[in-house]
UniProtKB/TrEMBL annotation:
InterPro entries: Met_Sox_Rdtase_MsrA_dom (IPR002569), Met_Sox_Rdtase_MsrA_sf (IPR036509). Gene3D superfamilies: Peptide methionine sulphoxide reductase MsrA (3.30.1060.10). Belongs to the MsrA Met sulfoxide reductase family. This is Peptide methionine sulfoxide reductase MsrA. It comes from the Bacteria. The gene is msrA. HAMAP family: MsrA (MF_01401). The active site is at residue 70. NCBIfam families: msrA.
């Protein structure tokens, strides 16, 4: 990477929890959007085959749903967690049927980029997945994460039953005592997850040299690994 790019990377550092003292200014976000390809804007690339969500038995696995900025970033983080079998990128939280990247990007569908996490509850709990969620994002950033701004990138944490909602509410109550700004994530009853386009699946794996992946996704993932080493799969499985 050139010295110029290293300087920009320093200016636009991605903090694992985006602490307020390191929040990027409006002009830095503009610069970042010009310099790097934003999430979802990259051209379709080669993809590896991936099992479908229906391939996983409900008798063995459970499903959890999260929205936290660009789904490329969040998919990568959750796929590294021990007990998580698979993660799919898609859309949820809106009021229109069959959303696509193009339609959700207008901000008029109500949907946010989201992920479906298929996990073994005997190996990892929903509570731990909630800890991963809040521990890998800027919990007070409204309407986006990092350089990805707009309602389609807003934070939403979905619950499927009252037990899950109680876990989420307890976590938010605890976090609220640590910050002088409101916790940004919407808490929403899960209704439906719409699978994203094929080229969005495993995007980091298939496109390791993409500028956005290298300069946004990888730093966010790396910071997560530093914060939660005890949750990671063995290196051979990541």
């Amino acid at each position: 990477m050139s010295k110029f790019n290293e300087t920009l990377k320093t200016i636009l550092v991605i903090n694992p929890i985006f602490e307020s003292k390191k929040m990027k200014s409006f002009y830095s976000l503009i610069l970042l959007s010009i310099l790097f390809v934003s999430c979802g804007k990259a051209q379709n690339s080669q993809t590896t085959s991936k099992l479908t969500s229906e391939s996983f038995s409900d008798d063995t696995f459970d499903r959890a749903y999260f929205a936290s900025g660009c789904f490329w970033c969040v998919e990568t983080i959750y796929e590294s967690v021990n007990g998580v079998e698979e993660v799919f990128s898609g859309y949820s939280g809106g009021n229109t049927k069959n959303p696509t990247y193009e339609s959700s990007n207008t901000g008029r569908t109500g949907h946010a980029e989201a992920i479906e996490v298929i996990y073994d509850p005997k190996m990892v709990s929903f509570k731990t997945l909630v800890d991963v969620y809040f521990g890998s994002q800027n919990v007070t950033q409204q309407n986006g994460q990092g350089p990805d701004i707009g309602s389609q990138y807003r934070s939403i944490i979905f619950y499927k039953n009252e037990d899950q909602k109680a876990i989420i509410d307890t976590k938010i109550e605890s976090l609220s005592k640590e910050y002088n700004k409101p916790i940004a994530a919407e808490v929403m009853a899960f209704e439906k997850f719409w699978m994203g386009e094929k080229y969005h699946q495993d995007y980091k794996i298939n496109n390791p040299n993409n500028p956005y992946i290298r300069n946004v996704s990888v730093p966010r993932y790396t910071n997560f690994k530093v914060r939660f080493p005890e949750l990671l799969k063995p290196k051979s499985e990541r």
